[in-house]
Amino acid sequence: MGTGILVVADSIEGRIRSTSFESTSAAARLVAKTGGKVTALAIGKGVSENARELGAYGAGRVLVVEDERLAGYVPAAHAAAALAAIRATSPRLVFFTTNAAGRDLAPRVAARFQTSVLADCVDIAFENNRPVAVRPVYAGKANLRVSTADDPAFLALRPRMFPAQRTGAPLAAVEPLAVAILPEMFQLEIASFAASQKKKVDLTEADIIVSGGRGMKGSEHFALLEELAGALGATVGASRAVVDAGWRPHEDQVGQTGKTVNPSLYFACGISGAIQHLAGMGRSKVIVAVNKDADAPIFGVANYGIVGDVFEVLPRLTQEVRNLKKAQG
Ligand SMILES: Cc1cc2nc3c(=O)[nH]c(=O)nc-3n(C[C@H](O)[C@H](O)[C@H](O)COP(=O)(O)OP(=O)(O)OC[C@H]3O[C@@H](n4cnc5c(N)ncnc54)[C@H](O)[C@@H]3O)c2cc1C
Q: Would you say the C-alpha torsion 110, 114, 119, 122 has a positive or negative sign?
């Protein structure tokens, strides 16, 4: 039986994503109870320096596969690196991230062990010496508790569900992991990588989100949301109705067929609160809804509700936030 946890870190342009610090912390908390060590694996071009940080979040060992050709996600090469790390460390659990790359990588690796992945986990514990994961189902209406006897067991963690905590440990020394990155691994070639034009925190990593719905009446009015977001240091999101209308790009969509977000604070402005939207943001810690219809379903999940017109409420909210920030210096 394997011991410890291997965290397959996710990175972008040489930067380890915050979700990987969360996964490493979650792993460190688990092994504190069950024993074993946390090993993190960072894959990519120029990740080594940032990968050292994983040590400060509880990774006792940090393996790195550095390769010029792995600037982006290369499915077969990333899978080969993960498999090599599993062979090198014999973990009991392997953690991935529930995001675009993780949804592809985790099953590729698990399939080599003829098993599947417990995806989108929002909580993980050990019971009777077996991992038990909590996974939301039915668009977040219910939670499933799933236990597995797989060894190793493969789990993908939902971003922003597991707090990232520094342990007081120093930065780790990284160890290069030898993996043969072969030309045939590049059969699936990524022609180009279109980074978002906006220099903003991705919705899945954002601590504050200001989202707009059809009630915003047109793309030009999203400037109101951008202003509030600017004052709060937030990222702008949207409902599917808005994306379908072409007012905002798909990368901004929150919901069942968009992104799953978990910010500390979520503003839903002119959004009715359809179940498919709630599936993506219903776990936000504090929800503020602005809607002119007092019976809109969004008020059923909101912690704070403002019944009013977004065109009157949003400028006033933005001004109040600016005043508060000014008063705080
Ligand atoms: C398979 C499937 C997947 C889906 N996936 C998603 C998804 O990922 N994300 C998603 O969001 N939706 C998704 N949907 C669509 C979803 O069902 C809703 O149609 C959508 O969320 C509605 O968007 P909305 O709230 O912006 O628009 P509406 O439902 O039209 O609501 C607009 C709201 O704005 C309010 N309003 C209007 N004017 C003002 C004003 N001046 N001031 C204040 N409030 C005002 C109205 O009272 C209303 O409540 C999906 C649907 C299906 C079938």
A: negative
Binding site membership of 276 for ligand 1 (Cβ less than 6 Å): yes
Sequence-distant (≥ 6) Cβ neighbours of residue 250 within 8 angstroms: 243, 258
The pTM score is 0.86
Number of domains the chain is built from: 2
What are 223-267's pLDDT values in tens digits?
999 999 999 999 999 999 999 999 999 999 999 999 999 999 999
**pLDDT tens digits, 43-58:** 999 999 999 999 999 9
CA of 271, closest atom in ligand 1: 25
Whether residues 127 and 96 fall in one domain: yes
Domain containing residue 256: CATH number: 3.40.50.1220
- Say if ligand 1 is within 6 A of residue 274 CB: yes
Examine residue 193 and state whether it is found in any structural domain, yes or no.
Answer: no
CATH of the domain at 154: 3.40.50.620
Give the distance (Å) from ligand 1 centre to CA of residue 294.
Answer: 15
